[in-house]
Write a structure and sequence with these properties.
The chain is α/β, with parallel strands linked by helices and 339 residues long. The protein folds into 2 domains: 1-95 and 256-339, 3-Layer(aba) Sandwich (Isopropylmalate Dehydrogenase), CATH 3.40.718; 101-248, Isopropylmalate Dehydrogenase (3-Layer(aba) Sandwich), CATH 3.40.718.10. The protein is built from 11 helices and 12 strands. It has helices at 18-31, 45-48, 57-66, 85-92, 150-166, 184-196, 209-218, 230-243, 281-294, 297-313, 327-337, and strands spanning 7-12, 36-40, 68-71, 97-103, 118-124, 134-138, 141-144, 171-176, 203-208, 225-228, 253-255, 260-263. The strands form 2 sheets. It has a 10-stranded mixed beta sheet with strand order 2-1-3-12-11-4-5-10-8-9, with helices on both faces. Strands 6-7 form a two-stranded antiparallel ribbon. β6 (134-138) and β7 (141-144) form a beta hairpin. α1 (18-31) runs parallel beside α11 and α5 runs parallel beside α6. It is globular. The relative contact order is 0.17. Bound molecules: 1,4-dihydronicotinamide adenine dinucleotide and magnesium ion (MG). The site of magnesium ion (MG) has 2 residues, from α8.
Length: 339
């Protein structure tokens, strides 16, 4: 039985650097006064190695029951092999909105370090080419079907506008390719402008995805909230992560009507797994998003302040940010400065 006052959180450590950054993150949560009861669950390679499905049904049931999960990255083989555990998880739990903030942290180096970037990408998470409908009508022809539904568009854009209103944002931009994908992206755009009518205080506009990428690397400070379909959102959010210091810093949340899964934008980083040098910040900031979602604003602020201080001082940065600290040293420093 759970001790009084403890909050249950489903925890999926994941593959590659997953368990290392999850340890660091849970350590920070515990050290800063969040009383969590961690319910460990399997997904991805870790599940397959135990003879289970990539997303076992008990994992799905537990997340549905608990309502929130913190998830490390899971490995998916390219071309062949098992279907992505992430995509399955998002579809099975109907986590339709993937929210990915991209904010510059003070003190970091990089081409955009001196800019004040503060964007949020809201990506549709269950449809599009990621619906997983691929087949070969002929051995030398492969086809994929892009699925876009009116309801899927409507709830995503509505969520994007609501979030923008709650966070007192100014501008919401739809990112699309409706000039070519006239029916699918056309429907997305139609629903976007329909929803915009309910949010007259927000400036609503749209941009074609290729131009958006060019603008993001030349004048990124113009953007505020970007709402987009699944594939464009996947690519554009990594681009935005790059603008603000790299994948090691970019958090994310997968939001559904009944539950939410918080995870970093990055993957399992097999090239550095097991070396103890991964940057846990992206998962730590995902946990901060989880705390806010649960209403623990004080703890969330404390941890966010800790990350901010350590990054702006620049004395204890991980290798991906040009520093020399390993995961543990960085974690200890964040805990020391989280107040
Ligand atoms: P990746 O994001 O794992 O790595 C890209 C590069 O960024 C690598 O050089 C890596 O070392 C570096 N990197 C990523 N996170 C880092 C961190 N926290 N600290 C320091 N460096 C970091 O992308 P990649 O290599 O394309 O994918 C590896 C695996 O991850 C694949 O199996 C892929 O399917 C999976 N993946 C899983 C995701 C998830 O579970 N949400 C998301 C993206 C990819
Ligand atoms: Mg991705």
């Amino acid at each position: 039985m759970a001790a009084m006052g403890k909050t249950r959180v489903a925890v999926i450590p994941g593959d590659g650097i997953g368990p290392e950054i999850m340890d660091a993150t849970l350590g920070i949560l515990e050290a800063t006064g969040f009383e969590g009861e961690w319910v460990y669950l399997d997904a991805g390679l870790a599940a397959i190695e135990k003879g289970k499905d990539p997303v076992p049904h008990e994992t799905l049931d537990a997340i549905r029951e608990i309502g929130v999960a913190l998830k490390g990255p899971t490995t998916t083989p390219s071309a062949g092999g098992h279907k992505s555990a992430n995509v399955q998880l998002r579809q099975a739990l109907d986590l339709f909105a993937n929210v990915r903030p991209a904010r510059t942290l003070p003190g970091l180096t990089g081409p955009f370090a001196s800019m004040h970037l503060d964007m949020i990408i809201v990506r549709e998470n269950t449809e599009d080419l990621y619906a997983g409908i691929e087949y070969k009508p002929h051995p030398d022809v492969a086809q994929a079907i892009k699925v876009i539904t009116r309801q899927g568009c409507a709830r995503l854009v509505h969520y994007g506008f609501m979030m923008a209103r709650e966070q007192e944002r100014k501008r919401v931009t739809a990112v699309h390719k409706a000039n070519i994908m006239k029916m699918t992206d056309g429907m997305f755009l139609e629903e976007f402008y329909k929803a915009a009518e309910d949010f007259p205080e927000l400036k609503a506009d749209d941009i074609i995805v290729d131009n958006c990428c060019m603008q993001l690397v030349t004048k990124p400070e113009q953007f505020d909230v970007l709402v987009t379909e699944n594939l464009y959102g996947d690519i554009v959010s990594d681009l935005c992560a790059g603008l603000v210091g790299g994948l090691g810093l970019a958090p994310g949340a997968n939001i559904g009507e009944h539950c939410a899964v918080f995870e970093a934008v990055h993957g399992s980083a097999p090239d550095i797994a097991g070396k103890g040098v991964a940057n846990p910040t992206a998962l730590v900031l995902s946990a901060v998003m989880m705390l806010r979602h649960l209403g623990f604003h004080e703890q969330a602020n404390r941890i966010a302040n800790g990350v901010l201080r350590v990054c702006s001082q620049g004395q204890c940065l991980t290798v991906d940010l040009g520093g020399r600290a390993n995961t543990k040293e960085y974690t200890v420093e964040v805990i020391a400065q989280a107040h």
